[in-house]
Specification:
The protein has 3 helices and no strands. By secondary structure, the protein is an all-alpha fold.
């Protein structure tokens, strides 16, 4: 045991330095493909319009305490958010991207049925 317990045995890293594995590797450029950018997708922009219109429609014509009001607003929100989330995971899992896109599609189709 060291006599002086306050003596540090390992030097600490400077604040703000990152772990070497978090920096891009020269041997694997583009290992994780670019992802995100959902704000530029036409489907996302249209889903925002659908969500906003649904909220306004429901607030104007459907009682706010009604289950229908809640279901319609949540379906619009789900479509919008699942497109965004699918775009975010597209860099690591195409399977998840497809599943989330299908969930968004189902939510927006449910809204169409209401």
């Amino acid at each position: 045991m060291p006599k002086d317990r306050t003596q540090k045995t390992n030097p600490t890293k400077k604040a703000g330095t990152s772990h070497p594995s978090s920096q891009p590797s020269a041997s694997y450029p583009g290992f994780i493909p670019p992802h995100g950018g959902y704000e530029n997708l036409l489907a996302y922009r249209k889903s925002q319009i659908i969500y906003d219109a649904t909220v306004r429609f429901c607030d104007r014509f459907i009682d706010k305490r009604s289950r229908t009001h809640d279901q319609m607003v949540q379906a619009g929100r789900s479509g919008n958010k699942n497109i965004a989330e699918g775009s975010q995971v597209s860099g690591t899992s195409k399977e998840s991207e497809i599943k989330l896109t299908n969930v968004a599609r189902g939510s927006l189709e449910e809204l169409l049925g209401d």
